[in-house]
Write a structure and sequence with these properties.
heterodimer, A: about 80% helix, B: mainly alpha, MetI-like fold
Chain lengths: ~220, ~240
């Protein structure tokens, strides 16, 4: 057994907190941006306009078949060419995760939209609602409700995946733990601490999602 | 900003070496395949056992199986890699710990394969449990009524059917293994992503590099998909399970 010194956790807390704040910000921005863009992508994929649905489909398939680490590296390389100026690792991470997660939220929203019974659309149309109104007031609310547990589970996955910004050196919680571990020469203790924090957050969230699953299910 | 394309870069020699960049990428592909396939074998073996445990009628095996799945699903893969690579040796007896740190051959590869295998086993277990759950209750009851023991029931009746049912979700897990193997770069496995980063820094031709590597990952995922579809077709029981996709 090696010798551990867990007292390093005490002075590390402010750094861990700052890192965790970035991790949470990245998760929340990517989640909200991803759900909005993902829903638009899902509408595009389901639209009768063939080129639109094909482009959205290609984007989703592309994102889903490339490793996330590679996508992070891709965006970090390409964003400066598009924006004309170098961007920080943190900004790059936020753009990357929003774009990447949109593809995954798109698939969830698509199956959510498809899970709404056909009769709902017919009834809404018969009541005189327009196509957009039907979508906004009838289909999407039910789709989101049906898919809420899956959307949240995906967000837990997203929260864990943000640790991969390690590849471009953005200062998230894991990076903060890494830096403190190096400064105090206690890398092992800091890895254990970050694993514990991730586990506690993800496990409690997943329990909450299970609970939610029982309460929001639409009774038919 | 202007970008200077240079597609010939792959055949150029790396700085300070007599290999070409193409050699780097092919080495990377080799390690990616090695890590992924080893991990997949571990994941399937353990995942099937744990998935079966979680569908047992008694409470203890179910709880053990659930604990396994929750443990591996709620810690990021990258952190798990660090745990196995940096933390685990500290918990071994002194002699073992020294051996692991200093003498263990192919340490990075073995750690990455084990870590990815265990991580994926939790996901396979989840699919297998769902597969077992989707079988009609009568199958288990009939087998037990015929006098088969519980292990025999699993071995001859439940698993052969459940595993066929879960081949499609396992196909996407298999493709995920190749994608997830990219995380192994962080502990120094010389796989594709590691080589891509190295080549990007060395050659400064990032776009060509990443395009090539993306293509290689595509090929891996596609081959994995075709392989599983082939297995699905070969193992299908005629007339029992409808062909899907």
């Amino acid at each position: 057994m090696g010798e551990f010194d867990f007292t390093v956790w005490q002075p590390s807390l402010p750094f861990i907190r700052d890192g965790l704040l970035f991790t949470l910000r990245l998760t929340l921005v990517a989640m909200s941006g991803g759900i909005v863009i993902g829903t638009l992508l899902a509408l595009a994929r389901l639209s009768p306009v063939a080129p639109l649905s094909r482009i959205a489909g290609a984007y989703v398939d592309l994102m889903r078949s490339v490793p996330l680490v590679l996508v992070i590296l891709w965006f970090f390389l390409v964003i400066p060419f598009i924006s004309g100026a170098p961007v920080g690792a943190e900004t790059s991470a936020i753009i990357t995760f929003t774009a990447f997660e949109a593809a995954f939220y798109c698939e969830i929203m698509r199956s959510g939209i498809q899970s709404v019974p056909r009769g709902q659309v017919d009834a809404a149309r018969a009541l005189g609602l327009g196509q957009a109104q039907t979508m906004i007031h009838v289909i999407l609310p039910q789709a989101v409700r049906n898919m809420l547990p899956v959307l949240l589970t995906q967000t837990i996955v997203l929260f864990q995946d943000t640790s991969l910004v390690y590849a471009i050196g953005a200062k998230d919680m894991l990076k903060a733990a890494d830096i403190v571990g190096k400064n105090y020469n206690r890398p092992v203790e800091m890895i254990v601490l970050s694993a514990l924090i991730y586990f506690v957050i993800c496990f409690s969230l997943s329990l909450a999602v299970k609970q939610l699953q029982k309460t929001v299910a639409i009774i038919r | 900003m202007n970008y200077h394309w240079n597609w010939g870069i792959f055949l150029e020699q790396v700085k300070g070496g007599d290999e070409t960049y193409l050699d780097w990428l092919l080495t990377g592909l080799g390690w990616t395949l090695a890590v992924s396939l080893t991990a997949w074998v571990i994941a399937l073996t353990l995942g099937i056992c744990i998935g079966a445990l979680r569908s047992m009628p008694s409470r203890l095996p179910v709880m053990l199986g659930n604990a396994w799945v929750e443990l591996f699903r709620n810690i990021p893969l990258l952190v798990q890699m660090f745990l196995w690579f940096f933390v685990m040796p500290e918990f071994l007896p002194r002699d073992w710990s020294l051996w692991v740190k200093q003498d263990m051959p192919a340490k990075e590869f073995l750690t990455a394969a084990l870590c990815l295998g265990l991580f994926t086993s939790a996901r396979v277990a989840e699919q297998v449990r769902a597969g077992v759950g989707s079988l009609p209750r009568g199958q288990r009851d009939a087998a037990l009524a015929l006098g088969l023991t519980l292990p025999q029931t699993y071995r001859h009746v439940i698993l052969p059917q459940a595993l066929r049912i879960v081949i499609p979700p396992l196909t996407s897990e298999f493709m995920n293994v190749f994608k997830n193997s990219s995380v192994a770069f962080a502990i120094g496995v010389l796989e594709l992503t590691f080589q891509a980063r190295q080549m990007q820094e060395d050659s400064e031709q990032g776009i060509e590099t990443f395009l090539a590597v993306t293509l290689l990952y595509f090929i891996c995922a596609f081959a994995a998909n075709r392989g599983m579809v082939l297995i699905e077709a070969r193992t299908r029981v005629p007339g029992l399970i409808a062909r899907t996709g």
